[in-house]
Design brief:
- The complex is a heterodimer of chains A (195) and B (303).
- Chain A is mainly alpha-helical.
- Chain A has 12 helices and no strands.
- In chain A, helix 9 crosses helix 10 and helix 9 packs across helix 12.
- Chain A is globular.
- Chain B is α/β, with parallel strands linked by helices and 303 residues long.
- Chain B has 12 helices and 10 strands.
- Chain B has a 4-stranded parallel sheet, with helices on both faces.
- The two termini of chain B are 27 Å apart.
- The chains are: A mainly alpha (195), B alpha/beta (303).
- At the A-B interface, helix 7, helix 8, helix 9, helix 10 and helix 11 of A face helix 1, helix 3 and helix 10 of B.
- The structure holds iron/sulfur cluster (2 copies).
- One iron/sulfur cluster binds next to helix 7 and helix 8 of chain A.
Chain lengths: 195, 303
Amino acid sequence: MEQQVQLLPLSAGDQLWAHAIAMETGIQVASCYQCLRCTNSCPVSTFMDIKPHQAVRLVQFGQREKLLESSAVWVCLSCEMCSTYCPNEIDVAGLMNHLKNSVISSGRKPAEKEIALFHEIFLDVLHKYGRINDLQLMQRYKWRLLTAGNLPPLDEVRKDVKLGMSLFRRKRLRLLPERSRAVKEIRALLHHYGR
Amino acid sequence: MKYAFQRCCTTPIFLKQYELSTNAVLEKLGVEIVDIKDMSCCGYPLRNYNFKAHVLSSARNLALAESRGLHLLTMCNCCYGTLKHVAHMLQENEKLQEEINELLAREQLTFQGSIQARHLLEVLYHDIGLETLKRSVVRTFQGLKIATHYGCHLLRPRHIIQFDNPFSPRKFDQLVELTGAESINWASKTDCCGSPVWGINDELSMDLTATKLSNAKKSGADYLCVACAYCQLQFDRVQQLLLARRTAACRLPSILYPQLLGMSLGIDEKVLGMHMNQLSIDMAEMLCARIGTAGSPGPCVHV
Ligand code: SF4
Ligand code: SF4
């Protein structure tokens, strides 16, 4: 069933949005003729509140707020099916990515807060070690979820512990994070972009 | 042949066998790899968060390889896709390249675009070549049915990656077939494995994986074969969880391509880290012909 998206009145700033995106990313939403190939090829479009083709449409109409508040951009897998199938070579996956970046840089609370949290911690770990350590990442992530009052069910915790033990026995879990030799340089470079 | 090596962040911790088997196969084939210790994460996870920082991260690794005049070899699809994407963007966008190079200059580095990021499969297929590989094969897997799993960033976006046809790819299948195994046709071979939402929306991630597993199984596969760190984690680690959590889940172990090729080249399975896979793979069954009565392995075939 096609979901109806209700349009809000346009402001002058909104109208310039599609143009700004084109300038910044080269993505020309104007050439979209709503054929729905992007949405039909998307493996998770059924789980999205705003479908890929609707996202493109909303950019055409300058509906910035609606998009930045949607959970769809966070459900997106970045699998690039949409961009590959689009007959007009519109980089829909790139657009989704750009939207994620816009949510973060505008200081908004992402619709899926756990997702943003995940990315944020990912960056923290990278900042500290120059490379990512999955154990650290998962630990911090689960810890932050816990402290935010999201208690996982007990048997889930038990299963995680069991998995951890089995990984450890198979020497698949390193307890010390791997560091890049250039962690200072990496930190300095990330710092340049506001981290 | 010599390459700089982009190490994936995930492999040293969760997938040591991917590095072990890759090293063993490349060594056997006379390929030298240089591990540049100053390299960092490829920037893939950053792209959802801070576009420029992700570009910088990749550009820095590319520049490090470039400073040594070496192409950059990676075995992870996410690293590969990111490095290629960033190299493409920098070459297309002069302003972006200037901005990034200004930052890289602090470390006396510069991106000029003289080297490329290469995926392990690309190196095997194009740089070494199918014929050379075939000549090196000492053991074959007759009658074994393998479902190849390409992974998103080995195929898409098509104008940047250009490794194979994104709609009906063949190169990975050919690489599997040179080991004597049969590469089966299955419907969701080019779909996403579900890994990007693991840890974010576990149920959705497991649903995507479960659908793929049952699809491959129904198409007659004995094993999955992958060439991406995240795909393997999904099909090995997450599948194990799936089997524990869901009653109706079907079991289909996944093997890393360098493990499969390595066995075919006569490398010891210990060296290939076969025992480190979470879902164990029956070696005897893999190596032996399964033609004849179903379930009973036939004689091993040596070429
Ligand atoms: S596939 Fe391309 S042209 Fe078709 S609806 Fe999607 S973005 Fe528009
Ligand atoms: S990149 Fe995102 S929107 Fe595009 S097909 Fe994949 S999941 Fe759907």
